[in-house]
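TICKET: design request
STATUS: open
ATTACHED STRUCTURE:
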């Protein structure tokens, strides 16, 4: 069987696919001035996506996460989900969303075939949420999570970017929220990008500060599944929910990397903070191009480096996280 393996022996069962670089939120850590330049109308078509995922599935990819920008801004979002869901070998179709109109639309997402949802909730305080995102939509998102549970979802992952001056003191509120709900709350270290250096310097807080608080309170680290994302999870016997920490500045963060990325324009990103993407789009035009596409993906993978260089302040070609879905 074909499979994706790099020169360090790492395998890649997980693909993050951006379907647009357009976002309608103005999060202070990503797009504080809103989404200016974008290529929304030039995004991969549904047929191009089908050919792309078919090739990756033949290479052993089992899990696809649909990202953006905000992926649900694509009017074909549900068609994209159902198309990917039907590809042999794909076991899980997940999505990451800012939660816009989630309470109204989550039922259609699940009917299309979404298996798992990550939604951003950077603060449980309505005013704080609006300050961070530029939108007064916290209750809409919380209602969407409740609606998901009513529709039979077994759990949610909720992302919160850890920021010194905005939510670093809200751990007790988050823990109280997940005590009786099957929610995995993932604190993500603020990452430096090409255009947020001042904000990063002011707001960055190491995820280890949260880890130490958890361990002191009886939380226990759990093993990570082979197709799981980058979060290290912790559980507590008195809580239904879990806590996840994504700490890209940890020295060993890249050791067990298991995911690749493709941008909305069809470029393979070997790392979130790589210098460049490698174009695949010319081989997404006809079904007969599959062998050549598979060969190109395998060849590009051999260029993947052992780690990123964030700890040195090097962010590669990533100007904002909305470019390729974080």
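STATUS: resolved
RESOLUTION: sequence designed for all positions
ATTACHED SEQUENCE:
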């Amino acid at each position: 069987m074909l499979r994706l393996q790099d020169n360090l022996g790492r395998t890649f069962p997980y693909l993050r696919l951006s379907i647009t670089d357009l976002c309608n939120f103005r999060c202070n850590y990503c797009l504080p001035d809103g989404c200016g330049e974008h290529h929304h109308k030039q995004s991969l078509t549904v047929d191009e996506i089908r050919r792309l995922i078919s090739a990756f599935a033949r290479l052993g990819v089992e899990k696809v996460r649909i990202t953006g920008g905000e992926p649900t801004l694509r009017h074909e979002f549900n068609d994209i989900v159902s198309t990917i869901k039907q590809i042999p070998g794909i076991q899980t179709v997940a999505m990451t969303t800012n939660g816009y109109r989630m309470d109204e639309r989550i039922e259609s997402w699940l009917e299309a075939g979404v298996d798992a949802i990550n939604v951003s909730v950077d603060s449980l305080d309505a005013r704080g949420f609006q300050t961070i995102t530029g939108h007064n939509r916290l209750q809409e998102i919380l209602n969407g999570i409740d609606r998901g549970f009513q529709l039979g979802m077994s759990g949610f992952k909720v992302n919160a970017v850890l920021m010194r001056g905005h939510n670093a003191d809200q751990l007790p509120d988050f823990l109280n929220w997940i005590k009786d709900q099957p929610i995995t709350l993932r604190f993500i270290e603020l990452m430096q990008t090409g255009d947020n250096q001042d904000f990063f310097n002011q707001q960055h807080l190491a995820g280890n500060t949260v880890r130490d608080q958890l361990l002191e309170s009886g939380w226990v680290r759990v093993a990570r599944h082979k197709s799981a994302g980058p979060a290290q999870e912790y559980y507590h016997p008195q809580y239904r929910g879990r806590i996840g920490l994504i700490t890209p500045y940890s020295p060993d963060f890249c050791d067990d990397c298991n995911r690749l990325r493709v941008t909305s324009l069809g470029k393979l990103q070997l790392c979130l903070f790589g210098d460049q993407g490698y174009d695949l789009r010319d081989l997404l035009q006809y079904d007969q191009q599959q062998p050549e596409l598979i060969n190109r993906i395998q060849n590009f993978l051999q260029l993947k480096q052992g780690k990123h260089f964030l700890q040195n302040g090097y962010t590669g070609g990533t100007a904002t996280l909305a470019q390729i879905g974080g």
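CLOSING REMARK: The two ends are 30 Å apart (CA to CA). The longest strand covers residues 156-162.
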